[in-house]
Amino acid sequence: MNLEELIYERLAGDEELARKLAKYNGLPAIFSPEAPDDGQDGWKDQMQYPQIVYNVDLQADEERKSAGTLSVNLLYQNAAAVAPKQIEAQIKECLRDVLLKPSDGALYAFAWARTDALSLPEGSGLILGSKIRFDILEYGSQETTDPDPVPAMNRYLKEMYPEAPVIGLDSFDSVTETLPGRPLFYCRSETLELDRETNAVVWMACKLAIHLLCPDSVVRKKMVTAVANGLGISGEVTLMDGSPMFIKQLKVDHKADYLSAGQLYVTGHYGVLRYRAEPHRIAGVAVQAREGAKTRKEEKGMVTAKKTAGASYTVQELVENAGLFGVRRECMAAALRLAGKKDATQEEARKLVCDYMEQEVG
Question: What are the structural domains, with CATH classification, of the chain?
Answer without folding.
Answer: 3-139 (3.30.2000), 149-273 (3.30.2000.10), 296-358 (no CATH)
